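User: Quick sanity check before I run a bigger batch. Here is a single chain. Can you write out its predicted 3D structure?
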Amino acid sequence: MSEEELKKLREDIDDIDKKIIELLSERIEVAGDILKVKKKMEKGIRDREREQKVIERTREYAREKGLDPDFAEDVIRLTISRTVGSEQEQVKRGEMWEKIRDFFEESPAQLKIARVLYKYGLRVKEDGDIVCGEIRIPAIQIAEEAGVDRRTVASTAKTILGNGELREIFSNLRPIPFLKGVARPLNLGLIEIIPTDATETGIISEVTDVISENKLSVRQSITDDPYFTAQPRFTIITSEPVPGKVIEELRDLPSIESVIVY
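Assistant: Done. Predicted structure follows.
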């Protein structure tokens, strides 16, 4: 195979990846339309029977295309979970974020900045600077991440510093070193747990019980805020790769929607 042929194949892969992202975006958009209809019909967010039919149909399609049905099921379960998370994000908020949303009710753009600050643990200093630890982050970079004008960063900082409750939250945020990106080169185990309902109690306890019973040592565990993230995950990094037996035990837990292994 020539370099030119390899380049062409890679370009084909890039085009396919783009189409996948476009289709996923379209799916989430349609899910939003479905949520509006459900609200009018006063129906719940999740339809387990419908989801099971989608999974079974996906496995059938996969077999027809010569694709591993288990792999296809993992992909569609992850997609369903993310879609449902987007729906839940619109109808169920935590008390803290309800309060923050109220503060920024007149400025959706400032709310976007607040979400970026919270997501990355960026702190607002008394002089209005945004910092990661003690490293100043340029307003233009924060604005690009939030998809707003850079002037909104300064106005958001001013709003935060002018309100006692907001100041208490956003002046004390801190980033954390996340080992996910270096787990594989360090030969660590890495799994991500997607719960059926992240707001339920006892999920972390159930997962850690399985891990400890199998005598695995946890190096790090990170949980997403279920009221902030559309698809909250519980990421666990262990001192050694996770055996298949442990993965199966985790997947058997009724509170777990999906387990992703890296």
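The chain has a mean pLDDT of 86.

User: Great, the batch can go ahead then.
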